Amino acid sequence: MSEAVDPVAEATQRLEAAVERLTRAAASRPAAPAGGEGDSTPPGVDPAAVAALAARLDETIARLRGVLGEEG
């Protein structure tokens, strides 16, 4: 007989794993030059895509907090 999986625990684990992957990816990126002038966006970075991803993550975290009964 298989055990029932808690969907909130599963979502929490998936979110934590995603954050860990993002942490590793960020750590492996070369550092941006310090004190650079002009455009502050690193080459190859789409600011709109980053903003959209950040918004999705914020919404996901807010929903998870709501399910867990935590205040943001």
Structure described in brief:
Residues 22-47 are annotated as: Disordered. The protein has 72 residues and is mainly α.
Please supply descriptive tags for the structure shown above:
single chain, 72 residues, mainly alpha, 0% strand
3D structure, described in words:
Residues 24-34 have a biased composition (Low complexity). It is a single chain. The longest helix is centred in the N-terminal third of the chain and has 22 residues, at 7-28. 61% of the residues lie in helices and 0% in strands. The mean pLDDT is 77. Helix 1 runs antiparallel to helix 2 (47-68). With 72 residues, the chain is mainly alpha-helical.
Question: Topology of this structure?
Answer:
Elements: H1 7-28, H2 47-68
Count all strands and give the number. 0
What's the average pLDDT? Answer: 77
Number of helices: 2
Name the overall outline: elongated
| Amino- and carboxy-terminal Cα gap | 38 Å
